[in-house]
């Protein structure tokens, strides 16, 4: 029995498109060249002691280097920690330690996190866009590639499909980030599952071997939603945007003939703005797979108006891919009804099961109205969080994953995810953990209680809104009404001053590496008291109803 | 980890097309109904003692019954012996015994084999198109379906992906048929591999969830080349042709809106003749996956002229799917170049590896000219023949399958299979074992030696040609020249008489169940002596060169 291991994908690349290009900056490699470079990199790493189970941390933008590491690591049976460089620095460090990273591969373009990370690792490889190592004596990726022999390492034939392939840390809504350990087989089946769904069903993001792909989802996030695996599997042309701005991405789309990208709605929003500014009226033939947060209908309309087709994917790092929107049977593609369905009707991937449960654990009917928590079962569902059996037990139950998302099941068996049960804020496709923010804010001496809730935002999807109850005596009486900082009425000066102080407090936390800057709430609102649940906790549902505008 | 077992496919059917139809004769079932019937059938069989490892033999035309048995058997962990009813009756019986069949499910439409098979089995289920059992007291399939509860059997959750799913016997070129035992995982991955290839690459037989499928390859043959699995996986409409004649198949294509079929070239030939007779000038939008024997270029042209698109698949029961023809990169679909490539350029399926070896085991270059034996490695390659380690060792070597086929590798990595290394005759997509025929013919008292070789045939692809050396003295001298029976020259009367006697001899063997009628050679040629190889064996290559016209 031949094993479903990730590096087998390269054999398909060599059959399907040995001469297809991988483009990054000034680099143009064919898959035949990429394959040779992967072998060389694997041999060079092997010589340095990298082998089965060695954990390799990588921090890079989407580049050919990152792609090469995917496969060299796979061949050696090593484990690729695709470092989530958007985590707050403290959490990032925690993830490196928790995963047991032994080697770091880091792009020189990253600034802030490096000062803290660099001293911790003796085994370090620089990822550079230039020729020389930024640190004499420390090798670059390119030096390793040039050094190794172009020969399949023996380990490549002994890697098992149930061996770990990669590890990724995702922000928890409370506490430390959670590690997900992905087996070769799971990541392969999930990635190909996305592709096969897009290829066999009528979607807006139809994908095939003759498309040109530019993944705008960073590779750290589930390998760019599987593109690092399924594009080579097709042998299709791959354009890697690196740190490209929306305007540069737009230029790549036009110049390289890109037909397919993935991105969160915020990225799509920015791309459309860039198109406005560049006077690019039409992007017909450009297909986008989006997801990560709900797609606002205004955004969907603006995309359509430019000729962009899209589908929405539902999934996440702790369950991988679950569903992708399709045009329902009997609906003509290209019609308004089809477009609306592509925003809201997500069909489970092959062999994925989705069901809804209400708060009492009862099944929720597929009536297109009733809301329940989304539970998912799939061939690639992870067993649980890495070295965290307690949190695993809460959400991985009897082979099902309790997503914490709220959804509606349509009568045709498709899913519309309407909300999250928990209260995390998703900004630009990235989670902001309200619990972490609340804990930080509550450290301020003038704060009695705090709740952070999501405020819808056209650009970022959501932004955090902090609702603060000032400490009695520290503030001044106000009329009991909810007031904005800066709004008219009693306590305005005091609230404005407190907001300023809270912002300084959080800015300090950013400097200390305890917080990512984009986590700082956009808005502060001050209240005399919170609505409470029957259990005495802050009632965030009521709060949102009251606060969010 | 969720297992890749065959009955999981039905869950996708329920998501992807619960209301899509399965059509057979007057039957119209939705997948939702089919699913319920499968559960009922499984429960009824379970009640009768069918369980893990029970071998169920099924002889049926492509029908909803056959489809239901696929999934009921899978859910119980039973093994489905898809009986090759085109085997000579002796071999068919051998296959039932060798596989350890405990239950038989037989369509009443079969006549000849039944008399011999029926008495051997106490556990018997009739498959009928009518209402009543042809044998009072013996249940029909439909009675079992009506009897069982619509409840998932407990066994369904304990079946492992490495458990055997089905067994199939294929004609060996010498000796008894060879049994192939397929694991759930292998059959699932191979079947879906065919679909995904057709969905992601530009082929003539593009396949998706909105196609309407009519498999004309019998389900016994690798589950109708995977259609019994991948069509429900898509939730697509499925038209089951049963024993339909080519004219009836044509009617189904038109009336049911069929867009996709699979068939061997002989079936395609007959379908085109039926279209001629029915005055159907065009079948635009009809896509055909063909294979099993080379596609004559004249046949390909005639299909194209009617608007039929096609691709060619390469594979077989002992290796499953290996490659399917595609339009090469850079070639415009629909052009003459594209059409020719679709006949000759077979791209290996994802994660399948193909290489060519010469007679000395050296690699053959991919130059589009050099011929070598085709070796295949794939994620679903069986371990070997069932209970036949000796023959397995010959062809399953170091994880590779030695196909016995001769091929040319094109510079773009695609494969063109040009011939078979061995000498079996393939007639209408079915093997005729020359060794078996030779053994039978040589039993005739007037035969000294005999060789059966393939004679190209426009309708059947190939037909057997028997070259006979009459026993000295039994015949009469002839001039040493090769002569046809019935042709002018010395010995004509004697040869005509001998041919008549040989035909009677073989007809008797058919009556005795030792031979299928269609195995009887079309032509007999008589020779004084055979060209021999250095090893003293009949040189069939030289013989073919000399004889075949």
Automatic annotation (TrEMBL), chains A, B:
This is AMP-dependent synthetase and ligase. Pfam families: AMP-binding, AMP-binding_C. One of its GO terms (biological process) is fatty acid metabolic process. Residues 437-537 form the AMP-binding enzyme C-terminal domain. The keyword Ion transport does not apply. InterPro entries: AMP-bd_C, AMP-bd_C_sf, AMP-binding_CS, AMP-dep_synth/lig_dom, ANL_N_sf. GO terms for molecular function: ligase activity. Gene3D superfamilies: 3.30.300.30, N-terminal domain of ligase-like. Keywords: Fatty acid metabolism, Ligase, Lipid metabolism. The keyword tRNA-binding does not apply. Belongs to the ATP-dependent AMP-binding enzyme family. PANTHER family: ACYL-ACTIVATING ENZYME, BUTANOATE--COA LIGASE AAE1-RELATED. Residues 15-386 form the AMP-dependent synthetase/ligase domain.
């Amino acid at each position: 029995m031949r094993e479903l291991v990730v590096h087998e994908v390269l054999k398909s690349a060599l059959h399907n498109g040995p001469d297809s290009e991988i483009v990054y900056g000034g680099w143009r490699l064919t898959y035949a060249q990429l394959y040779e470079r992967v072998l060389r990199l694997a041999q060079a790493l092997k010589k340095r002691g990298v082998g089965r189970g060695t954990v390799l941390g990588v921090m890079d933008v989407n580049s050919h280097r990152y792609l090469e590491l995917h496969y060299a690591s796979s061949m050696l049976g090593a484990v690729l920690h695709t470092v989530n460089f958007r985590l707050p620095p403290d959490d990032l460090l925690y993830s490196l330690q928790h995963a047991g990273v032994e080697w770091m591969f880091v792009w020189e373009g990253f600034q802030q996190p490096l000062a803290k990370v660099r001293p911790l690792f003796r085994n370090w490889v620089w990822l550079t866009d230039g020729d020389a190592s930024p640190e004499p004596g420390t090798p670059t990726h390119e030096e390793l590639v040039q050094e190794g022999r172009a020969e399949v390492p023996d380990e490549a034939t002994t890697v098992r499909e149930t061996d770990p392939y990669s590890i990724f840390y995702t922000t928890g809504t409370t506490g430390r980030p959670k590690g997900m350990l992905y087996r070769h087989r799971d990541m392969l089946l999930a990635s190909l599952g996305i592709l096969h769904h897009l290829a066999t069903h009528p979607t807006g993001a139809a994908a095939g071997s003759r498309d040109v792909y530019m993944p705008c989802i960073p590779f750290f996030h589930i390998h760019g939603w599987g593109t690092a695996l399924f594009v080579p599997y097709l042998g299709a042309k791959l354009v890697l945007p690196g740190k490209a701005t929306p305007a540069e991405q737009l230029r790549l789309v036009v110049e390289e003939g890109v037909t397919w990208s993935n991105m969160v709605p915020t990225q799509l929003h920015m791309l459309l703005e860039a198109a406005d500014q560049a006077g690019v009226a039409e992007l017909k033939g450009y297909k986008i797979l989006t997801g990560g947060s709900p797609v606002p209908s205004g955004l969907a309309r603006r995309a359509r108006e430019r000729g962009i087709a899209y589908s929405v994917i539902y999934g996440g790092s702790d369950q991988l891919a679950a569903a992708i929107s399709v045009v329902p049977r009997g609906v003509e593609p290209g019609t308004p009804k089809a477009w609306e369905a592509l925003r809201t009707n997500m069909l489970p991937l092959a062999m994925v099961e989705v069901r809804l449960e209400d708060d009492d654990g009862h099944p929720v009917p597929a009536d297109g109205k009733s809301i329940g928590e989304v539970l998912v079962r799939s061939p690639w569902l992870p067993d649980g969080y890495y070295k965290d059996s307690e949190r695993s037990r809460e959400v991985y139950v009897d082979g099902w994953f309790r997503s914490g998302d709220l959804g509606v099941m349509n009568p045709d068996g498709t899913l519309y995810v309407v909300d999250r049960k928990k209260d995390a804020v998703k900004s630009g496709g990235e989670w902001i953990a309200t619990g972490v923010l609340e804990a930080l804010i509550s450290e301020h001496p003038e704060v009695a209680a705090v709740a952070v809730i999501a405020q819808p935002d056209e650009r970022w999807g959501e932004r955090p809104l902090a609702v603060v109850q000032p400490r009695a005596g520290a503030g001044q009486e106000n009329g009991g009404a909810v007031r904005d900082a800066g709004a008219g009425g009693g306590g305005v000066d005091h609230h404005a001053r407190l907001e300023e102080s809270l912002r300084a407090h959080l800015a300090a936390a950013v400097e200390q590496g305890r917080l990512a800057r984009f986590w700082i709430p956009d808005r502060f609102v001050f209240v005399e008291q919170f609505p409470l649940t029957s259990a005495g906790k802050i009632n965030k549902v009521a709060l949102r109803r009251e606060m969010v505008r």
